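Aim 2, interim progress: modelling of the pyridoxal-5'-phosphate-bound target.
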Amino acid sequence: MILFGEMRMDMTLGDILRAARAIDGVADCTPLVPSPYMSMAIGHDFLLKLENMQPIGAFKLRGALNAVRSLPPGTAGVTCCSTGNHGRGVAFAARERSIRAVICMSELVPQAKVDGIRALGAEVRITGRSQDDALAESQRLVEAEGLVEISPFDDSAVIAGQGTIGLEMLMARPDLDHILIPLSGGGLAAGIAVAARAIRPGIRLTGITMDRGAAMHLSIRAGHPVEVPEVPSLADSLGGGIGMENRLSFPLCRDLLDETILVTEDEIYHAMQVLYFEDRIVAEGACVVGLAACLSGKATPKGPTATVITGRNLDMQTFTRVVTGQDIQLGDRIVKGRPYGA
Ligand SMILES: *Cc1c(COP(=O)(O)O)cnc(C)c1O
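Predicted structure of the complex, ligand included:
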């Protein structure tokens, strides 16, 4: 139980066990595999939770499915704002229930993600340059068209769904000492933290994000949600704010994470190459922030460690440029390329 302000929030392992039952059979129990290269690098077992293998190519299926399946009968339809993967999860879950889904996204979302959502039969609205603009459109649709909004991270059913990842990780490896969690709105980190703290209270939990636009990191520092400018990143799935009215994921991350760490675009670039060349995994920039934190020496695990490979819905053109060592243009900034091992 967590107390904050006037509100009392109960989020327990029970919620996560119920979510695990609700999504069983559609969202897969994914493998937790060793990375020999990273294990060598940190001197302890380093494991990868392969959420890139989920049916929609990302872990967000878990939370979205749990949320959509728990809506009352007669629900007309759902809407959400998304950097891409939550929208894909909601679209998948809405199709399963045969209800309407309208996914609102900003112009920063890669085309591959937009196409993936349309292919699931959802309507797509592209509005503005930020997640905040997409959120405003989603909230307008709640009023105008009677849709139910499902937040990508600030929703108890979504957080419980993401928490099933922590449950599975600790069932597979009860000896885990440290979990490195890619961090954006904090639904993933909050869910994993609720599960992991309940099962193994002393475990170390680190949230990791890119250094430009680190909304949760800066909000925890400030003691309240803050707005951050949204800029293009190799870890595009980690973009966007945490919402100035955040009720759940902010207090949970603030109270349950041991620390938050920031990594640079150069470190993300290198870690994408490591994951590809050493582990032969094709995954989004957002997935490798845990590797980047260890390889840069910013995180120093003291025992068996795991991170979540959160998704594979990347823009293949950018990915190809990264693995072939070419420069990457991110808005007005260039990430200098270097062939792997050179
Ligand atoms: C959404 C997402 C994250 C971050 O999850 P939050 O719950 O917003 O912190 C990380 N990686 C990928 C691929 C995502 O889609």
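The chain has two domains: 2-58+155-325, 60-149. The pocket of pyridoxal-5'-phosphate is lined by residues 58, 60, 85, 152-153, 182-189, 237-238, 284, 286, 310-311 (CB under 6 Å).
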